Amino acid sequence: MNHTTTEGSPASMLECMMLIRAYEEKAAALQAAGSMAGTCTAVGQEASAVGVVRALRASDRILTNHRSAGHLLARGADAGRMMAEVMGRSTGYCKGKSGSLHISAKELGVVLTSTIVGGELSLATGVALSTKMLRQDGIVACFFGDGAACEGIFHESLNLASVWDLPILYVCENNQWQAFVHRKETMNIDHVSEWAKGYGMATRTVDGNDVEAVHAAAVEAVAHIRKTGKPYLLETYTYRLRGHFEPDDQSYVDARELAEWRAKDPVVMTRERLLKNGTLKADDIALMEERIAAEVERAAAFAAASPFPVPSELTTDVYA
Q1: For residue 9, what is the DSSP state?
Q2: DSSP state, residue 34
């Protein structure tokens, strides 16, 4: 199942969102069964990943954070190679050496996944400056959360990008949670986009659970960057429906708030809208679910059957 095109049809985006959800739920189930290492999921944030990534070109580069599965799958990553990487197998994208928190895939233009909060922000300016100085085609998309926006590097990165006119699409996936701390405990404003305006940067906040709205906003943001060469911050306002790290019982989460956001589940909302407006029929959805279930099971079987890296690989492809 390949999603490397920039095609943004609602049906195609829904299927990609469903794949991301199924992949992450399978990963969580395998972790619970002791067959996979723990991982940070982004269940509930699928619309943000798909809507933005589908607005990018193959020549654009991506830097992302510890909740990266959606960005990678939306970019066209193979679910089997991703799952193999999380399981530490040699067939993974980084030969089993990165786990789920540091995956990079050069062939997809995914420069890095950083588990250091804000780590991708510190490197996005360098990647974009290199792109500009070498007169290369493409922009840099940098995904981060509201927690990273509370780090000093957020302000340093935006300031330099603004001063140097760097072609960066900053994507703040404001999911309301910073590990186990609610956003309202660390910020006196609701929208990170307000901070970006202080750097003279074009910004927009969009409903992060509406994939069509996200995609339209991302297309507009990307067009602005390509035309002006200047950075842009897009904030997708969403919610993390699972815990910070698997396993997590979410005992720290207000039950009413979680229920309110579950009612705005982006996968469910998109599916119901496309059924209601006649874009899809129930049979179409059933076929999607069948394809995705088969893909995820194939991925899990491929990963489980893959070998671990041999000892002689211990120091290869590693910078020291």
Answers
A1: -
A2: T
Structure token pair of residue 4: 């490397």
| Strand partners for 233 | 170, 203
CB 93 within 8 A of CB 82: yes
Which residue type is seen at 7? E
φ, ψ of residue 82 to 5 degrees: the values are -65, -45
Q: What's the confidence (pLDDT) of residue 5?
A: 41
Domain extents in the chain: 10-303
What are the Cα distances from residue 74, in Å, to 24, 68, 144, 244?
13, 10, 16, 21
Q: Confirm if 75 and 294 have CB atoms less than 8 A apart.
A: no
Within 10 Å of residue 276's Cβ, how many Cβ atoms? 9
Within 13 Å, how many C-alpha atoms sit on residue 39's CB side? 33
Which residues are registered as beta bridge partners of 181? 178
CB atoms within 10 A of CB 44: 25
pTM for the structure as a whole: 0.94
Segments in the chain below pLDDT 50: 1-6
Give the whole-angstrom CA distance, residue 190 versus residue 146. Answer: 10
The b-or-e profile of 118-140 (16+ CB within 10 A means b, else e) is bbbbbbbbebbbebbeeeeebbb
Distance separating alpha carbons of residues 267 and 20, to the nearest angstrom: 10
> In the numeric block, which tokens belong to residue 311?
């000892």
DSSP 8-state code for residue 75? H
**138-180: pLDDT as tens digits:** 999 999 999 999 999 999 999 999 999 999 999 999 999 999 9
Token pair recorded at residue 14: 């829904």
Pick the CATH number of 10-303 from 1.25.40.80, 3.40.50.970, 3.90.190.20, 3.40.50.300: 3.40.50.970
